[in-house]
């Protein structure tokens, strides 16, 4: 539910960031060029023909007889002649006449006559010219037809088998068999478990449909780049032994309006033909981002609408399951996430220590290793690395071994390539130094411990200090509380103390303040402001409404609605309230310092602690406290009970 933003660069380098260079648009250029070329030809032909006028052969003879002809030119099959009358005109106004040349007759007679009359005779190297002209005509026709054909195919492909315009060449990749199973995906047990059901469903849909159960049509894999979302989707297809359709949301980005939509339609059509199968849409945020932002383009909306329609339209009992992956679930359109669509979110976490070890094992399966290789040490060193990093690391190590002329990979290779792959390039914020790790651990435990001690219920289901989705370095998954419609002031105070508990722990343990608490501070301030200005919970202002909440479903922020003097006073009141709860949170932690240390230590070693484990620590501590209380000599526990 909450993750704290310690990371100055929250999204980190996005492996899939849609920054592939746009394809050069050569095609339209060629077409335009050709069209212009042909038009110019046509015009040129028309101009050159425009001053030609046809005459019959007898007319020609008449002209000849009358001595009216000035010039004659023989071309392949015609005689072009200029009359004296025309020759007298301005050159631009001259009209040339032509008539058919009577072939198969002896034209020497004609030539002699012309010579006698002193008419200049021209002979174009006609055959060649004609052949060249014909070849030229044929070539340009072929080219034109070729271009048209190509265009049609292209359009046909883009419009996804629209009408009879040619087979779709949509960028859909289909793998009959992915050849990947869950054995290839290390760690990610929770994700696998959630996907297990889908596999079972693909194996025998009747089992589900006979009861009348509807299976989810889709599941959304959420996690940082490289955590193995694609791999998992492929593994689902491999386990279920069904074909795997792959398309990436970013493929839609550079397309014309309407093309994306028809591609989606086409994808689902193809899938329906070979069902049961898996459709996997990578980077679904590229199409699925919410429609009410300024950034949405009409084209994207169409694609998204089509996607929604297809998901609603397909019959899941046929065995089509749509998986999608994203690392930005928060930007997705709500319509995509509503029940019946991608209502299941499967978190694909960054691997913890055990997960990293397993991934390393999977990827070193086929690599020859020397005896000294200690994968556990490597796994410990790579906190924050994702599967893709580790796969890359192992490969780099193998390359290094080859470079060094060795027959097997040794530990040194692995550690050296770790530096290259993960720490090297830019010390991606995902790998924490030891001190950072300790801070994150104490910070998170601080929140959890305050909450647990104050609420007397298990406050969290899990804390991890594995850098997490969207850049949070630590991550606390709070126990979902029952939906609440009312909160009392006391409860809100506990909430406030919990929120500042993270920072309190930093100060209690390290005597310092980190940037990791920024998000906590913002939330605590917002809550405090609401308590004072909306809920009427301050003694100073009583029941006066001092601010209003605007756009509840968007930002749910309170805007001050009072005089400036009052606003300044409110600010002071907020400050006091926060200072008070912060002091209280610090008190709680100071009184339970040993417990804080114990739990943080555990978290540092294991990287993950569950709510149950946390509560076990607290209970053990309380039992110990009770024992000392029972012995009459030590009534010290009193103060703690509050
Ligand atoms: P994503 O789709 O989440 O960005 P991929 O599934 O494309 O990540 O993972 C990239 C590569 O990283 C995979 O091909 C695989 O080699 C490796 N990898 C990632 N996660 C795991 C894992 N849990 N187990 C084994 N290999 C993994
Ligand atoms: Zn925090």
What does the model show?
The protein is of the alpha/beta class and 642 residues long. Helices cover 50% and strands 12% of the residues. The longest helix is centred in the first third of the chain and has 33 residues, at 126-158. It is elongated, with a radius of gyration of 40 Å. It starts with a strand and ends in a 12-residue tail after the last helix. It binds adenosine-5'-diphosphate and zinc ion (ZN). The site of adenosine-5'-diphosphate has 19 residues, from helix 8, helix 13 and helix 15.
Q: What is the secondary structure topology, with strand pairs?
A:
Elements: E1 2-3, H1 26-50, E2 52-54, H2 57-65, E3 69-74, E4 78-83, H3 84-87, E5 96-100, H4 108-116, E6 120-123, H5 126-158, E7 173-175, H6 189-203, H7 205-209, E8 218-222, H8 229-240, E9 244-248, H9 259-274, E10 277-282, H10 285-288, H11 298-313, E11 320-326, H12 334-337, E12 344-347, H13 353-364, H14 375-381, H15 387-403, H16 411-424, H17 434-455, E13 460-464, E14 475-478, H18 489-510, H19 518-533, E15 547-550, E16 557-560, H20 564-591, H21 593-606, E17 608-610, H22 611-630
Parallel strand pairs: 2-5, 3-6, 8-11, 8-12, 9-10, 10-11
Antiparallel strand pairs: 1-14, 3-4, 4-5, 7-9, 13-14, 13-17, 15-16
This protein binds adenosine-5'-diphosphate (ADP) and zinc ion.
């Amino acid at each position: 539910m909450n993750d704290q933003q310690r990371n100055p660069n929250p999204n980190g380098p996005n492996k899939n960031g849609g920054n592939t260079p746009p394809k050069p648009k050569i095609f339209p250029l060629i077409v335009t060029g050709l069209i212009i070329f042909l038009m110019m030809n046509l015009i040129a032909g028309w101009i050159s023909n425009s001053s030609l006028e046809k005459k019959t052969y007898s007319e020609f003879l008449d002209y000849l007889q009358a001595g009216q002809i000035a010039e004659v030119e023989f071309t392949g099959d015609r005689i072009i002649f200029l009359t004296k009358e025309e020759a007298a005109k301005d050159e631009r106004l001259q009209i040339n006449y032509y008539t058919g040349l009577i072939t198969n007759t002896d034209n020497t007679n004609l030539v002699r006559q012309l010579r006698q009359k002193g008419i200049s005779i021209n002979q174009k190297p006609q055959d060649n010219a004609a052949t060249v002209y014909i070849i030229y005509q044929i070539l340009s026709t072929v080219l034109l037809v070729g271009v048209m054909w190509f265009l049609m195919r292209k359009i046909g492909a883009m419009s996804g088998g629209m009408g009879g315009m040619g087979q779709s060449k949509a960028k859909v990749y289909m793998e009959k068999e992915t050849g990947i199973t869950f054995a290839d995906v290390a760690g990610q047990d929770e994700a696998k478990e959630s996907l297990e059901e889908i596999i079972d469903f693909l194996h025998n849909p009747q089992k589900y449909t006979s009861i009348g159960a509807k299976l989810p049509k889709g599941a959304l894999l959420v996690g940082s780049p490289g955590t193995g979302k694609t791999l998992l989707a492929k593994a689902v297809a491999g386990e279920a032994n069904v074909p795997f359709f792959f398309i990436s949301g970013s493929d839609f980005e550079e397309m014309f309006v309407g093309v994306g939509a028809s591609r989606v339609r086409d994808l689902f059509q193809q899938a329906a033909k070979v069902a049961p199968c898996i459709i996997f849409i990578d980077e679904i945020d590229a199409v699925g981002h919410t429609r009410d932002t300024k950034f949405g383009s009409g084209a994207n909306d169409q694609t998204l609408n089509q996607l929604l329609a297809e998901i609603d339209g397909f019959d899941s009992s046929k065995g089509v399951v749509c998986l999608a992956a994203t690392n930005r679930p928060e930007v997705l359109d709500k319509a995509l996430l509503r029940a019946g669509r991608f209502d299941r979110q499967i978190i694909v976490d960054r691997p913890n220590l055990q997960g990293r070890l397993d991934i390393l094992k999977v990827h070193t399966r086929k690599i020859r290793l020397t005896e000294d290789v200690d994968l556990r040490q490597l796994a410990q060193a790579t906190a924050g690395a994702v599967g893709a990093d580790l796969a890359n690391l192992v490969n780099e190590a193998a390359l290094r071994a080859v470079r060094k002329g060795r027959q097997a990979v040794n530990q040194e290779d692995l550690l050296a390539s770790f530096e290259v792959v993960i720490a090297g390039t830019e010390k991606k914020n995902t790998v924490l130094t030891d001190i950072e790790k300790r801070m994150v651990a104490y910070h998170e435990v601080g929140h959890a411990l305050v909450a647990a001690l104050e609420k007397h219920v298990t406050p969290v289901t899990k804390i991890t200090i594995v850098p997490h989705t969207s850049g949070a370095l630590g991550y606390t998954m709070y126990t979902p509380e029952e939906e609440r419609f009312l909160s009392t002031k006391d409860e809100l105070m506990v909430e406030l103390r919990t929120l500042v508990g993270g920072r309190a722990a930093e100060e209690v343990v390290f005597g310092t303040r980190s940037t990791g608490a920024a998000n906590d501070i913002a939330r605590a301030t917002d809550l405090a402001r609401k308590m004072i200005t909306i809920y009427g919970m301050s003694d100073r202002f009583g029941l006066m409404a001092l601010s209003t909440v605007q756009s509840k479903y968007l930002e749910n922020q309170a805007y001050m609605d009072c005089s400036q003097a009052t606003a300044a006073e409110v600010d002071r009141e907020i400050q006091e309230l926060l200072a008070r709860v912060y002091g209280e949170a610090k008190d709680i932690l100071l009184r339970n310092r040993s417990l804080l240390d114990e739990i943080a230590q555990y978290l540092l070693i294991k990287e993950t602690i569950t709510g149950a484990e946390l509560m076990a620590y607290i209970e053990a501590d309380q039992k110990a406290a009770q024992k000392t209380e029972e012995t009459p000599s030590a009534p010290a526990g009193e103060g703690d009970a509050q």
